[in-house]
Amino acid sequence: MAGHITGIDQSQPSIARVYDYLLGGRDNYEADRKIGDFFIRDLPGSVAIAYANRQALVRAVGAIARDGITQFIDMGSGLPTADNVHQVAQVHVPGARVAYIDNDPIVLAHGRALLETDDNTTVIHADLREPEEIRRHPDVERLIDFERPVGMIFSAILHHLNDDEDPRELVRWWVDRVPSGSEVYISHFRAGYNEQTQAAEAKLQETFGRGRWRTDDEILSLFGDDLEILDPGLTYCTQWRPAPPADDVDKIGVEERDLTVWEQLIACALARKP
């Protein structure tokens, strides 16, 4: 259970802490667990969304690092968990630099505790809707060289922005400020057009007063017109560059089996700036 940290209203749920709870973490409060328990109890199987998203993020960071990118900005990073962006990146690129951005003070507190011995990482308390503030933050200026390619991570965050907050323009703001060879990763809730996913969307709207599930075309439009979508394009997180199945002739790979309605709720893509 999360301890008391100054500046946190424990009576109000947080997107980051609900996500932490669904992934089995302990940095959450009763208000967060109440929302998480709705998904666990009333929408059985929906926790697969969080796991599918996290596993795709791990694979995406590995792919970006293998493409030679050594610095990352993780927008709406959430609470530290296993296989954080810097840990995955540094497996492939020792010394990889990562700036984590989140507006939840508990993320700042726990993130700084995790990263206090790593000079190549930082956690910044900021709102992703204020990109100029993030860009000019001293820690971002210290870590990120905008003359070299950057990996921009928008993992399960842009669907928490409403249309009038213009998430497409937000992505374009960053694309305009990173050089050729930079890569942008987006995962996003998909419009499901079924009872279960409509219930999930309604619950988040009711709880946080924001959020918009988008169609595949709308998700792709978030990348704008200046990026090259890399293989395999926009696809379900579970099926995005999946790890090969174990050496078991009876094991069916995720590309061959029918996905659950929840696995079909979240999709992702990776793009490169030419």
What descriptors fit this protein?
alpha/beta; Rossmann fold; disordered N terminus; 8-stranded mixed beta sheet; 274 residues; globular
Question: Could you explain how this protein is built, in words?
Answer:
It comes from Nocardia transvalensis. Pfam families: Methyltransf_19 (PF04672). Helices cover 36% and strands 14% of the residues. The chain is of the alpha/beta class and 274 residues long. It has a single domain (15-238, 258-273), classed as 3-Layer(aba) Sandwich (Rossmann fold), CATH 3.40.50.150. Strands 1, 2, 3, 4, 5, 6, 7 and 8 form an eight-stranded mixed sheet that branches. Strand 4, helix 8 (167-175) and strand 5 form a beta-alpha-beta unit. The model is unreliable at 1-5 (pLDDT under 50).
The whole-angstrom Rg is 18 Å
Mean pLDDT: 86
Distance between the termini: 45 Å
Report the portion of residues in β strands.
Answer: 5-15%
Low-confidence stretches: 1-5
Which sequence of SSEs, written as H and E, runs from N to C? HHHEHEHEHHEHEHHEEE
Biggest sheet architecture: 8 strands, mixed
Helical percent range? 25-40%
Q: How would you classify the helix and strand content by structural class?
A: alpha/beta
Short recap of the structure:
The protein is an alpha/beta fold. Helix content is 36%, strand content 14%. It has one domain (15-238, 258-273): Vaccinia Virus protein VP39 (Rossmann fold, 3-Layer(aba) Sandwich).
